[in-house]
From TrEMBL, chain A:
It is found in: Cell membrane. It comes from Candidatus Fermentithermobacillus carboniphilus. GO terms for molecular function: acyltransferase activity. The chain crosses the membrane at residues 35-58, 70-91, 111-129, 141-161, 221-238, 298-317, 353-377, 404-424, 445-461. Keywords: Acyltransferase, Cell membrane, Membrane, Transferase, Transmembrane, Transmembrane helix. GO terms for cellular component: plasma membrane. Its main location: membrane. This is MBOAT family protein. It is a multi-pass membrane protein. PANTHER family: ACYLTRANSFERASE (PTHR13285), PROTEIN-CYSTEINE N-PALMITOYLTRANSFERASE RASP (PTHR13285:SF18). InterPro entries: Ac/AlaTfrase_AlgI/DltB, AlgI, MB_O-acyltransferase, MBOAT_fam. The keyword Membrane applies. One of its GO terms (biological process) is alginic acid biosynthetic process.
Automatic annotation (TrEMBL), chain B:
InterPro entries: SGNH_hydro_sf. This is SGNH/GDSL hydrolase family protein. SUPFAM superfamilies: SGNH hydrolase. Keywords: Membrane, Transmembrane, Transmembrane helix.
């Protein structure tokens, strides 16, 4: 059930109504609606989530007593095995069977990927590690823990919430008072996400699918167009989900972590990862890169660590080699950037590069690297993938049809829209104040009616699932 | 700023503007947005409720324009005129002839993959909407009579409507429909509930699929073509594709039953009964006998085809409808594949269909036929005879203007009358 489906609108309205009516029982209301929401994926998926939550909750409590390390390790291992079995079973076995014979019985097993497993597993692991590190106290109420892990606003595709941020908010649930301003903010955020998903992401989807369906025959120019279109499709799709998650959280009094911050204005790899899927990037940094030694063990080891961390981040996205390559590619980009930065040091030349117009130039250049990365992300067939990347980088096939200008205009428009979003987010406070105080009510009414009208038009009969639901 | 009720005035304005937009949309939605010489398959395949919406707007259009004589085409992808676009469809060319010769307009309600049960259900839906089924043309395929296993289901699209409109007939085929694999993706009951009981009350939701398609059309990002529009001899992949059992089945030489045990016959009889006292022209669709030479020369196929033709002729005389075997009337070079035609083929076939309509006497009592005779002093069927060779005589600008006027309910004249400066009585 996507956030953009009428079924979800009904669930959300009911959850909100019960939430505000049943003061004193709000955690129960949320716990029930979280379960109902996740039940839509299937009863087995719900039981698995419940089981993972229970094991983690129990391990968390034991992680404060004697043998805390063993209990924390047990909880983390159980969660990672759960993820490995459901997500990487075929990938691991498929690759192993190329090297050594594997019984048919094992190959025939077909574990179905439970929705949101990658997200909630990382959230559970971070909880156990934080408890073990004494950064957060273990949660003593399973009801509270269940809402923390299964809140329907974020269980399926994040943001991956830290216990230190979210559990205290969940604890304050009963003290939250009805606040119209907050509801308005929540609805506004949700609407922004809805527009991104219905109007942009789902509209781009068939174009992207058409391009990638004949990827092997695409010219260099068409491949670049396909890459750009996918770059915007996946951004609109995932950031739409994240905006809606934030909006839902706001309605229920929670402040969920921001996951996107106009990533395509990034000038270099570290900035990109500070703007793209922020909660995953910080998770990878805190629970993988830093434990590996981060940059504390010398320059070369730091580079090695970042490549390893990014490659694992790629594998987190999907059990296929193209995702590994995508992660490795971003790891290598980050490494190259570190080396470049190290060479430049603090020279005056380097300082000049920071001034206008270089940031814009850098953004545009880095955008091209990102687009090549998206090709790696989108294409599963490695042979086609390598051929496509070679074509893109060597411009070996410059044939193009009359449609090319149409897409150039479309992509330019999308990039301008991205810049507008960047500007609006940076000036959100002043623009919001201007909107509240200076825009006449009839104009506001016209805009509201227009938005509702457009959303109605783009409400498709067949729901397009969010791309990140697959992960 | 809040009003006395506590609701921000901007929300009140928003509500007023939204309601106003809905009224305007309901009043002025042009027919061409929901129906452009045929139902838009790309739209209705994802939302079958949209078929009802097309019929509603068509009814309104007929009422607003005071159209009394018109012909309804029902059928599958052949009558729909795949794989080309709407302006290459048989109904487009038939309407072109209609305008030239002041004949009644033709409304094409064919849906690709539709089966005999869908045709029958569509007739019931037309009755329910108050759209006349006095003059109906239906295309038949040999494949429709081939034994189903249980696919393709005899009601492919309109199962829910059949169940609602004729539960007795539905009960006859319910088991086979439930067993069908191709009907497994039935619409979600919750979505259907919303479509029928919620969205139908809000015009922007009711017509959202058409509005969205219209928007994409305006930006040149909408493709109404349903496949490769090249002639069959330019498609190197076609011969191997047609070896697929799905296509082979369409020319299956195994003997088939031509009694009520065959669901196609069952629904054909329902259609014939429905059309008693009205006009019905059934025609066997053209077959590309050059491409399918091997299949159509098999003794089993030939025997079946003869039996089928005899059966349909007998049925036609029993129920007083017209049957024509047009399987052999289109030259092979006008085909796009084994069954479908290229644009020129549909233009050619439109002339043939008009000739058959006029020959068969379907328009015998039609005002249009009387008007032709009165105005030009000729027999309508002679008037049409050379139409198949006609090149597009209508000035596109005049055509667009005419469509615009019709869409907005302002149609008082036909295109040819506009051109001639004459007004229809």
């Amino acid at each position: 059930m996507g956030f953009h489906s009428p079924r979800f609108f009904v669930l959300l309205l009911m959850a909100a109504a019960f939430f505000f009516i049943a003061k004193g029982k709000r955690l129960w209301v949320l716990a029930i609606f979280d379960a109902l929401f996740y039940l839509n994926a299937g009863i087995l998926d719900l039981l698995l989530l419940f089981g993972a939550a229970a094991v983690t909750f129990f391990s968390g409590i034991r992680s404060r007593g004697p043998r805390k390390k063993a209990w924390a390790l047990l909880g983390v291992t159980a969660n990672l095995l759960n993820l490995a079995f459901f997500k990487y079973y075929h990938f691991i076995l498929g690759n192993v069977s190329r090297l050594i014979p594997v019984p048919d019985m094992l190959l025939k097993m077909n574990p179905i990927l439970p929705i949101g497993i990658s997200f909630y597993t990382f959230q559970l692991v971070s909880y156990l590690v934080d408890v073990y590190r004494d950064e957060v106290p273990p949660c003593r109420s399973f009801l509270l823990f269940w809402v923390y892990i299964s809140f329907f606003g974020q269980v399926i595709a994040g943001p991956i919430m830290r216990a230190s941020d979210f559990i205290p908010q969940v604890e304050r649930t009963e003290r939250y008072t009805f606040d119209l301003g907050r509801i308005k903010s929540g609805v506004a955020l949700f609407t922004v996400g809805l527009v991104k998903k219905l109007v942009f992401a789902d509209t781009l989807a068939p174009f992207v699918d058409t391009f990638f369906a004949r990827a092997a025959d695409l010219s260099s120019i068409d491949l670049w167009i396909a890459g750009y279109l996918f770059a915007f499709q996946i951004y609109f799709d995932f950031s739409a989900y994240s905006d809606m998650a934030l909006g839902i959280g706001t309605v229920f009094g929670y402040e969920l972590a921001k996951n996107f911050d106009s990533p395509y204005v990034s000038q270099n790899p570290p900035e990109f990862w500070r703007r793209w899927h922020i909660t995953l990037s910080t998770w990878i940094r805190d629970y993988l890169y830093i434990p590996l030694g981060g940059s504390r063990r010398g320059f070369a080891r730091g580079i090695f660590n970042v490549v390893i961390a990014m490659t694992i981040s790629g594998l987190w996205h999907g059990a296929a080699w193209n995702f590994v390559l995508w992660g490795l590619y971003h790891g290598l980009l980050s490494a190259a950037h570190r080396i470049w930065r190290n060479i430049l040091g603090n020279r005056s030349f380097a300082r000049k590069l920071a001034g206008f117009p270089f940031p814009l130039f850098n953004s545009l250049v880095f955008m091209q690297f990102t687009v090549v990365g998206w090709i790696l992300f989108r294409m599963r067939d490695l042979e086609t993938l390598f051929r496509a990347v070679r074509k893109m980088l060597t411009f070996s096939d410059l044939t193009y049809g009359p449609h090319v200008w149409y897409y150039v205009i479309l992509v330019s428009g999308l990039y301008i829209l991205h810049l507008i979003e960047y500007f609006v987010r940076r000036n959100a406070h002043s623009l919001s104040s201007f909107w509240d105080n200076n825009v006449p009510a009839p104009i506001k009414g016209l805009v509201y009616a227009g938005i509702v009208f457009v959303l109605c038009v783009f409400l498709r009969p067949k729901e397009n699932a969010f791309i990140y639901f697959k992960f | 700023m809040k009003t006395k009720t506590g609701i921000p005035s901007s929300l009140k304005y928003g509500l007023v503007f939204f309601v106003l937009s809905q009224v305007l949309l309901e009043l002025f939605l042009p027919l061409s947005l929901v129906y452009n010489y045929r139902i838009d398959y790309n739209i209705i395949k994802d939302n079958l409720t949209d078929i009802n919406r097309v019929l509603d707007r068509l009814k309104l259009y007929i009422q607003r324009n005071g159209i009394e004589d018109y012909i309804i085409i029902i059928g599958d992808s052949v009558a729909y005129s795949g794989p080309g676009g709407p302006l290459q469809s048989v109904s487009y060319y038939m309407n072109q002839i209609s305008r030239e010769k002041s004949l009644p307009p033709v409304f094409n309600l064919a849906i690709p993959a539709a089966q005999m049960g869908d045709f029958y259900t569509l007739l019931l839906m037309l009755d329910q909407k108050g759209i006349s089924t006095d003059k109906v043309i239906i295309n038949l395929l040999y494949a429709g009579f081939v034994k189903r296993d249980p696919d393709p289901p005899v009601v492919y699209w309109l199962e829910r409507e059949l169940k609602r409109l004729d539960p007795v007939s539905y009960a006859q085929v319910a088991d086979a429909l439930l067993a069908s694999n191709e009907n497994k993706n039935r619409p979600d009951p919750f979505e259907t509930f919303l479509e029928v009981y919620v969205y139908n009350w809000i015009p922007v939701l009711r017509y959202r699929d058409f509005l969205r398609a219209g928007l994409f059309k305006a930006f040149g990002a909408y493709n109404e073509v349903t496949g490769d529009i090249r002639p069959w001899y330019e498609k190197p992949y076609l011969k191997s594709l047609l070896q697929d059992p799905v296509y082979k089945r369409q020319f299956d030489p195994a003997p088939f039953a031509l009694d009520d045990s065959n669901p196609n016959v069952f629904f054909l009889k329902r259609i014939a009964e429905h059309q008693r006292g009205k006009s019905l022209l059934l025609f066997m669709s053209p077959i590309n006998r050059e491409l399918m030479a091997e299949e159509v020369s098999k003794p089993g196929f030939l025997q079946n085809f003869v039996s089928l033709n005899d059966f349909l002729k007998d049925l036609a005389s029993e129920y007083s409808f017209v049957y024509r075997d047009l399987s052999n009337v289109v030259p092979a070079h006008l085909f796009s594949d084994h069954l479908h035609l290229v644009s020129e083929g549909y233009r050619y076939f439109a002339g043939i269909l008009w000739k058959e309509i006029l020959n068969s006497g379907i328009l015998h009592s039609s005002k249009a036929a009387c008007r032709i005779t009165a105005r030009y002093g000729v027999d309508p069927k002679l008037w049409i005879l050379d139409s198949s060779k006609a090149t597009c005589p209508v000035d596109p600008a005049v055509l667009r203007f005419d469509l615009f006027r019709r869409s907005w309910g302002m149609n008082l004249r036909t295109v040819s009358d506009l051109r001639d400066g004459q007004e229809v009585a």
